[in-house]
Known about the structure:
alpha/beta; Arc Repressor Mutant, subunit A; 31% helix; 22% strand; binds zinc ion
Amino acid sequence: MKITELSPLVRRITADNGGVFTGAGTNTYLIGHQEITVIDPGPASKEHIENIVKICGEDIKQILVTHTHNDHSPGAKLLHQRTAAPVMGMYALHKEMQDPTFKANRILKHGDEINEAEYSLKVIHTPGHASNHLCFLLEEENLIFTGDHIMEGSTVVIAPPDGNMKQYIDALEDLKNIDLKLLAPGHGNLMENPYSVVDWIVSHRMYREKKVIDAITEASKATLDELIKAVYDDIDEHLLVIAKYSLEAHLNKLIEEERVTLEDKNYFWKG
Ligand SMILES: [Zn+2]
């Protein structure tokens, strides 16, 4: 077990679930030293939960989850059973790809605050990767726990119907209204220059959207399968299955903006 001290208030341990979607594994963050908040206890791994208890003792104050995908929240149930600490988060609007064991003792909403003597955390609702995605701002350090809203080293998958590209980009832009110094992602290392990171992600998404628009206007109408290779001509073939979700999310955004229509599996350009 490797504990990384990131700042006076924040420690990190990473679950042993590395992979295509999870990078080196899911980060679990421990905030504070007397009254500890655990953010994202990770997958249902007994070993990881025991490691958390070994570090924190049994007096964990609360367990927060950024969202209820299976690499972030199933550990919450195990850690709650082990320590009785209340689980806090939001429920997703759609059941697909969600952790069915997730149960919140307190449902959080945008703007909620969790105040302890040592620190305070502010809840920021950031839908996009998931409808119930939350970031948590550690006000004393201008550090924000970004879950899968922002990951280090790769772009996150936006999978409809729970994932929504328009909300995702709006929620990224909203982060620029917060005074931030550091991003603490759900996967990967701390990231500096938060506003440049946000700008890069938004511009990368808009570059991809431009490719979607170019491909549809060129073909005048096209299906998802016809669009995927033209839009994602710069990634490994085996990643196309995953990219298809984000492609659909881009198209849904263009439909919401009334620039594209969908009829009988064919996407049409409206302009
Ligand atoms: Zn994740």
